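Help wanted!
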Amino acid sequence: MRVEERLYTLRYKRDEKPHLEIKDQQVCNKCHETYKSPCITVCPANVYSFVEGKIIVSYENCLECGACKIVCPFNNIVWKYPRYGLGISLRYG
Amino acid sequence: MKYDAIVIGAGPSGSASAYTLAKNGYKVLLIERGSEPGAKNVSGAMIRESEISKVFETKDIPFERIVKRVRLIFRSKDDESEIVVKPKSKLYTISRLKFDKWLAQRAESAGALLITKTTVTGIEGNKVITERGSVEGDKIVIAEGANALLSMSLGLRRELKNEETVLGVKEVYASTRNEVEKRFNLQGDEGESWRIITDYPFPSAGFIYTYKDSVAIGVGARVDEIITMGIRPFELLDSFKTPYAELVKGFSLREYSAKIIPENGFPSFKPCEGSVYVAGDALGLVDPLTFDGIGPAIISGYLAGKAENCYSYSKMLFEAREISKVIKSRPLVKELLPNIGLYSHLVNDFLTSWVEGDFSKLKYYKSSLGKLMKHLILGLGVIE
Ligand SMILES: Cc1cc2nc3c(=O)[nH]c(=O)nc-3n(C[C@H](O)[C@H](O)[C@H](O)COP(=O)(O)OP(=O)(O)OC[C@H]3O[C@@H](n4cnc5c(N)ncnc54)[C@H](O)[C@@H]3O)c2cc1C
Ligand code: SF4
Ligand code: SF4
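Answered by r_m:
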């Protein structure tokens, strides 16, 4: 099953302000070459992807799991929670 | 606005803390970022009544099923053995949204004020800063869970490392109550839990839990292994699930979720400083051997509520059985993890040898005796 189909099962309330941000794109390019972007590998929701040499963050799909901030070798992600309880809302948990 | 105590996070540890404080007459504010308690939280989940009942009256606990059988499965690429255990103590499966809501309601009934949809963004002295303004508390309990942004910002702990972090991914498949009971051969409120330890495609531990009308399937692996193997978490889950596809065939996928699980923490993380206390996953209190995190979260939250100063909190944590077993289990698990393959083969070979009446197969393990002894000794250390 594709990740997108799994994400359809979730209720999200979108925070207009991104809660995840990349500090420095250049660092990601270096990381991509040397470490193959561990944030892309570890993310269960396909939030990170490389498009035309640039890392794109689809923060609205984030499951708020916390893995990417740990694996980033350069501590290059500003990792916050969505504001006011926005973001994901689980039914079973 | 000033409170006697402010508790951050209405998960098991936060609600236990707020409940304890409110019951003792404190004016308590419990702040939760989710739209309701549990909305942001992920577990399998199986809980032990003996632990919950140390803090809460458990008569009306909103359980999914009472676990009558636990299947322990050791799986490697070609072998599989299963041991069925009938637990004597009371184990429940729960779904977090209902369970966390119930816990928070206990705190509210005791007099705590719960506010939701509010994220705490910082703590300065006795001031708790949120997106909606700030409040003051004589005592502050941080029960923020594994992504411990506040505890880290205060320098009470550091970020987890790859090798001490497990990423759990989970799916819930729903059908009817009848169908779940038929497939797992259950009656009434009875439930079944599966624990699957496997070294294929790399060391991971999975679970299957029966809920009322649904089934939860999940797997956890260390993030350093995930990165090294280059396997995506959902691919790992798919590979883990394949042998159990029949169990949920025709059921519909209702929820996909994921969360990190800390495999290190107290005493190397500081539990307290001044009037700020840390409890639960934020303090890294998940038992890596039994995957029990909710029990230690509740006990530590309760102790943080009761403690009069940092020294007594730290002392009480060391003395609590539920917490000391977490600390003692860590070195054993560190040893066992790279040897999951050895054990799943050993269990399989032992059981087949026994069934076949020929133990000669086991002579291969003679060379591992030293290692087995070491693990046994570490294992005995876990037993009090
Ligand atoms: C896949 C998986 C399976 C598991 N299975 C089991 C199991 O079967 N049995 C078991 O006992 N344990 C299990 N665990 C572990 C268990 O989930 C945790 O140990 C437990 O939830 C810890 O409770 P806690 O209260 O410390 O943290 P949490 O449950 O994470 O609660 C923290 C709360 O704080 C809130 N919060 C965080 N930051 C802020 C902030 N800044 N402001 C306001 N609110 C905030 C969060 O929204 C959340 O409600 C499992 C974990 C995972 C991931
Ligand atoms: S892991 Fe960090 S540095 Fe590497 S690509 Fe991802 S965000 Fe950039
Ligand atoms: S927190 Fe989890 S889901 Fe969100 S971006 Fe990071 S790894 Fe992906």
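OP: Thanks! One thing I noticed: Residues A 22, 27-28, 31-32, 37-39, 48, 55, 72, 74, 76-77 surround iron/sulfur cluster (ligand 2) (CB under 6 Å).
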